[in-house]
Amino acid sequence: MVTITDVARRAGVSPSTVSYALSGKRPISDATRLRVQAAVRELGYRADVGGRARGHRSGVLALAVPMRSGIHVPVVTQFAVSVVTAARAHDHDVLLLTQEEGEEGIGRVAETGLADGVILTDVQLQDSRLPLLRSRSLPSVLIGLPAEPEGLTCVDLDFRAAGELCVEHLARLGHRTVALVGSPPEVYVRRTAFARRLVDGFTSAADRHRLTSTVHPCGTGADAARAVAERLLRELPALTGVVVHNEPLVDPLLDAFEHLGLRVPGDVSLVAVCPAPVAATARTPVTSVAVPSAELGTRAVRLLIRKLSGAPVPGTTLLPPRLTQRASTAPRGV
Question: Residue 197 is part of a domain; what is its CATH number?
């Protein structure tokens, strides 16, 4: 069977462009439209939407999990396991779409009826997959919040509020100079929604409380942790509060501060945005805002099942952040 992906390859465009050219839902140049139409004729493409229109269901949900650089695999695994578990509770299996498939994978699912709906993870502020979703009838749920979520169904932790909550906690403890040790640089270059929104919350709250603040994207591992700790102390000698949004860096950063002769929390208080078990089992239990990966995956499945049944669903669901205080934070100077 010829798919929209085959047409896109023949025409030298993306699957979303093919969809727009055929549906007329977005302006497409005459030259591009002619190439698409020629590819359709040459390949004998016909959109296979009859099965879904007749109410046929595959009993499968697609899960788009781009395995890009800078992604922490254990968190992705938690999302995937929770989606599979929740889907099975609703008598659905899960089809995994990886980075290599991208738009093509979603287009293939939409055209062939391989899945009844799709859940997207690692959402970017301007995500290249969204035009295709908006142009097709394939029901979808995003675990993440893009810049323009209108017409989409999204669920996520409120990462902006999480960044604010971390700063407010440090400000209440009297800290006046704070830093965010963030995700790897490539995560920000891609404009990944959760990372960008947390930075916005961090900087907004720091400005509101008139704190001196800085943001440092960081890789993972002991060398990266030591390098960023040394840079922080060199550039911000008055630093007493650190927010970490980079799960694999929690323990290495604690080690790096100790190596530099700093006590946590005596000299530096540390707050992390990460799964609760990571924070609770760190060498110094870390005050944290939990990333509820399992709950997000489960909610995404429930929202998608409701959409498939025709029930109304909210456009955006943001889970409020909750901070748990542990041994890594204390009043400044204690």
Answer: 3.40.50.2300
Cβ–Cβ contacts within 10 Å for residue 323, how many?
17
Domain assignment present for residue 280? The answer is: yes
The answer for 113, left when phi > 0, alpha when psi is -120 to 50, beta otherwise, is left
Pick out the chain residues at pLDDT < 50: 49-54
User: For residue 21, what is the domain's CATH number?
Assistant: 1.10.260.40
What is the pLDDT, as a whole number, of residue 77? Answer: 82
SS3 (DSSP) at 65: strand
Answer with the one of 269, 291, 313 that is the final residue of a domain: 291
- Contact 231/180 with Cβ under 8 angstroms? no
List the structure tokens of 295: 């709950």
d(CA 288, CA 270): 9
Q: Report which DSSP code applies to 192.
A: B
Q: pTM here?
A: 0.81
Q: Token digits for 280?
A: 């609770």
3-state secondary structure of 117: strand
Contact criterion met (CB below 8 Å) for 57 and 304: no
Please indicate, yes or no, if residue 60 is contained in any of the structural domains: no
Distance in angstroms between the alpha carbons of the first and the last residue of the chain: 69
Q: Are 83 and 63 in contact (CB under 8 A)?
A: yes
Q: Which range of residues forms the domain containing residue 21?
A: 1-47
Task: Tell whether 257 is covered by a domain.
Answer: yes
Q: One-letter amino acid identity for 212?
A: T
Q: Is residue 190 a part of any domain in this protein?
A: yes
Query: What distance in Å separates the CA atoms of residue 10 and residue 12, rounded to the nearest whole number?
Result: 6
Contact 246, 220 (CB under 8 A): yes
Rounded to 5°, angle at Cα 100 from 95 and 106: 50
Count helices and strands in the chain by DSSP H and E runs: 14, 12
Q: Residue 328 has which token pair?
A: 């890594």
**Parallel/antiparallel/unpaired status of strands 117-120 and 316-319:** unpaired
The pLDDT score that the predictor gives to residue 200 is 98
Three-state secondary-structure class, residue 218: coil
